[in-house]
């Protein structure tokens, strides 16, 4: 896994976001993108704090959805400040048990030790 360092272009951040979404089938890889104080929120349902809780939440979702065969980003927008990158995406995931899931996600990537990690992610599934 790689990290985008401060001063790199949006292309690096965009690739990292795409990788974090498509790597969702690999829970440990997905969790590695989160800051130690990261938060994962399913809008209107539940939120969890910290890498271990995020890992458990993703594993629980995998039990319900089954294997994710493919995730593709339909659209995305990016905003950047000195210490944060805010990304909003619409995506589709094809899963073994639940079929095609359409969702929205907003991620806030925080600069930490000269690299960006997910500090907050909120998602919804239609």
From TrEMBL:
Domain of life, source organism: Eukaryota
Domain DUF4440 per the UniProt entry, residue ranges: 31-118
SUPFAM superfamilies: NTF2-like
Record InterPro entries: DUF4440 (IPR027843), NTF2-like_dom_sf (IPR032710)
Stretches of the chain forming a coiled coil according to its record: none
Protein name: DUF4440 domain-containing protein
Organism of derivation: Ancylostoma duodenale
